Amino acid sequence: MSMPEIRRVAIVGAGSIGVAFAVVFARAGWPVRLFDPDGARRDAAPQEITQRLNELARFGLLDEAADAVAARVQMTTSVETAVAGADLVQECAPERVDVKRALFAQFDAAAPATATFASASSALTASTFVGDLPGRHRCLIAHPGNPPYLIPVIEIVPAPFTAPDVTERSLQLFRDAGLQPVLVSKEVEGFVFNRLQGAVLREAYCLVRDGVATIEDIDTVMRDGLGLRWSVIGPFETVDLNTRGGITSHAQKMGPAYERMGAERGQHDPWTPELVGKVAKARRAVVPLEQWEERVAWRDRALMALARHRKSAASDSDS
């Protein structure tokens, strides 16, 4: 088996996400140059990186000494120095179009012609800030879970003008860095991560506003209910395994109620037979109905393992 290619990474922005990305890439064995225009952030970042690496080591999540990983990260005092020779430039600046537009213009002028430019934007699409850039074909969004050294999913969101080979290289690069890239096929504000999170938050706020439940009880439902299952399987597989007959049966039984709940919030998006059929076809390709019982048993064992871990972790925290 061939070893993953070593990439040279520049990170611009040394806030919490920039520091977290430095941990991810350095842990992958890659040299990292980190820049922030704020001198205080440049001074604080190395210690923060070391602290995070020491914590990962304490939990057995590093394959080498924390100091060896930290040594791969070099602080720089300019964008130009950071991006010189980089294969990937990862922007982690504030969520402002003007700031990102100015930074990407600097990247385009100073980085190698072969470098890929990725933004950690949480909601802004690449088209909103690099649409007029000469090198826009090498720009895309790489939106991580927070923190990415613990939450491996990262959304890769190309713009319509992003070169296909840039997208493919980016997917492989982040995969080699130990992350789990997901391709978002259309530019939509908030991508997938924050649209799903936003849907839950909108309903949570409404439930508090309407006096249905307290914030503590809502957090309990998520943490000790939905969150347990969602840490093992996603929402489609959850309902697929919750109803004998699979997701088609679930949609028939629960679809009207979910339609009414959505309409109550001003969102009328019924699950049409065509849409349910598309989702069901995808689920059956993964788990045929004749394997449904076996997969339910697997889910239960996974939840048992999670319950055992939580019980053990609670005991450790009490001791």
Topology:
Elements: E1 9-12, H1 16-27, E2 32-35, H2 39-58, H3 66-70, E3 73-76, H4 79-83, E4 88-91, H5 97-110, E5 116-119, H6 127-130, E6 139-144, E7 153-158, H7 164-176, E8 180-183, H8 193-209, H9 215-230, H10 235-242, H11 246-264, H12 273-286, H13 292-318
Parallel strand pairs: 1-2, 1-4, 2-3, 4-5, 5-6, 7-8
Antiparallel strand pairs: 6-7
User: Major β-sheet, in short?
Assistant: 8 strands, mixed
Strand segment count: 8
- Beta-strand proportion: 5-15%
For this structure, what is the CATH class of the largest domain?
Alpha Beta
* SS-derived structural category: alpha/beta
Average of per-residue pLDDT values: 96
SSE run: EHEHHEHEHEHEEHEHHHHHH
Query: Termini separation (Å)?
Result: 44 Å
- Give the helix tally: 13
Domain tally: 2
Helix percentage range: 40-55%
- CATH fold annotation of the largest domain: Rossmann fold
> Going across the major beta sheet, what is the strand order?
3-2-1-4-5-6-7-8
Query: Any guess at the CATH architecture of the largest domain?
Result: 3-Layer(aba) Sandwich
Unreliable stretches covering 5 or more consecutive residues: none
Q: Tell me, briefly, the overall form.
A: globular
CATH superfamily of the largest domain: NAD(P)-binding Rossmann-like Domain
CA radius of gyration: 22 Å
